[in-house]
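Would you mind giving me a polypeptide sequence along with per-residue structure tokens?
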Amino acid sequence: MSLPTLDKATLGHVVELAKNRNILAGAAAVFLIGMIPSFNAWLTRRKVNNHLTDSSWDWTKEVVVVTGGSSGIGKEIVLKLAKKHTMVIIVDLNAPGYQLPPNVSFCSADLSDPIEISKVSKKIVSEHGDPTVLINNAGIGNAMSILACPESKIRKVFDVNMIAPILLAKHFLPAMIRRNHGHIVNVGSLASFATQASNVDYGCTKSGLLAFHEGLLQELRHIYKAPLVRASIIHPTWVKTPLIADLIAKGKMKDTTISAECVADGVVKQLYTGYGAQIVVPNSSAWTSMIRGFPGWVQERLRDKVSVMLLNAMAS
């Protein structure tokens, strides 16, 4: 296909425009503004990862532990990693309801029980060696108001969603630090930034998981001196998983949910970069992380909107 030709008059007009300083300045400003997000992402990646690249990742030799890998997001993560012939160990209370690839194994454990966490961690190291990647994906929720929810259920949400990731890290992190090689991934939630009515205990645990992620990065850098051990956290919006299956079935959340595979893609792609990061899925919801910096009245209006949506879904 031949390119269109310009007559002399049009070409001359274009040349004159190109010489106009105001137009050149405007074009330069547009270009520089467009570069800001990319430059910001580059600076963040460099700082979070201590300005270092780890080229030693070999996914045929890594050992990955995925909690909650029997269903939902965890299942999709497991299947994607298995395609790379990576050794994957699922830790879940329930057995997988799908055929496990030959490089995937299953260990049953109640992640609300510290004794079981200790036992399963020792079993994994004994049978498979020290994990190089820990993906804290397991999570539960109650979808009940504070006063309606029994104390036992509140404690279980904290045990599974927040305490278990810390205890598992205590078991597997020392070997990562010794090797200066490893990655701890926490699956958080947008509830870290905007908690809703009837989702308070869950939101508390996800906010706590974000604090754990941020503090872990600081300790890896300043205490353990392991600059190549990575840490990531993924914040998905509502996901089509068993956790909210009933709400989706009622028809009020279908337009606001994403697939488990979409979240798993974000987790696995980040792992394969060799860098740690903080990711929001979908990326169009990344602005949510800024909510706590908004004026109080704006924050409350946004939380009101999500709370009403959730309560309507639960009531329908």
Remarks:
- The domain at 57-315 is CATH 3.40.50.720 (Rossmann fold).
- The chain has a mean pLDDT of 88.
